């Protein structure tokens, strides 16, 4: 069974927030109460994710 994966992206802070992540990044802050993972990324990484069709296809919420 595939876990649901939802991305919330905040361009101003350059954060990627993953709900129910398939893998937890060692660099991420994880809120244990909500299983939310927050990753700070560079402008280039953020733009890459923002323009990637792979994350858009997984955005379920």
From TrEMBL:
InterPro entries: OspI-like (IPR049307), OspI-like_sf (IPR049308). Pfam families: Gln_amidase_like. It comes from the Bacteria. This is Uncharacterized protein. It comes from Shigella boydii.
